[in-house]
């Protein structure tokens, strides 16, 4: 089934909405303890419990609107359900804090496995947005593997050594900013190995 186009604003709301809700909920609830069904939960765990159904709903809505979900989005949703669910079930925020580490290690492992086979699997996700020659994709994939490994280490350091407030800020703003800056820093690579869309269209004919 062909992918349907949606407004960039709608997609941005679906992608970032659950995370923003988590950030706001945490900051409003972080200093309290909340009794639910006879068990006391911290504001962190309550915010996590709100985040899980929101990201599941946003992913389903995105699929309903576009008929397409990337492998990364599926992996992220599954890990949120597992690690977020464990945090709520066991009343321990540690599992949710570990989720970014597992996600980045998973992505690095998958991309690294592709590199060993001479394939740039990152191209399957980003080629439509950034048309580029195979050599360029191989270089970019290697750099992304390094980035994901560095982010996994950074997340471990932050959640293990700093406060919940700092970790939530890091997850909500720090990680996205690092990814954006990293992609912007690859401009020369895109220019060196880029392929004009018109050329790509002609090649498909």
From TrEMBL:
Compartments (UniProt record): Cell inner membrane
Entry superkingdom: Bacteria
TM segment ranges: 12-29, 41-65, 72-90, 102-122, 143-160, 166-184
Broad class of the protein's primary localization: membrane
Membrane topology type: Multi-pass membrane protein
InterPro entries per the UniProt record, alphabetical: YciB (IPR006008)
Alphabetical keyword list: Cell inner membrane, Cell membrane, Membrane, Transmembrane, Transmembrane helix
Family designation: Belongs to the YciB family.
Role played: Plays a role in cell envelope biogenesis, maintenance of cell envelope integrity and membrane homeostasis.
Name this protein carries in UniProt: Inner membrane-spanning protein YciB
Organism: Thioclava nitratireducens
Organism lineage: Bacteria, Pseudomonadati, Pseudomonadota, Alphaproteobacteria, Rhodobacterales
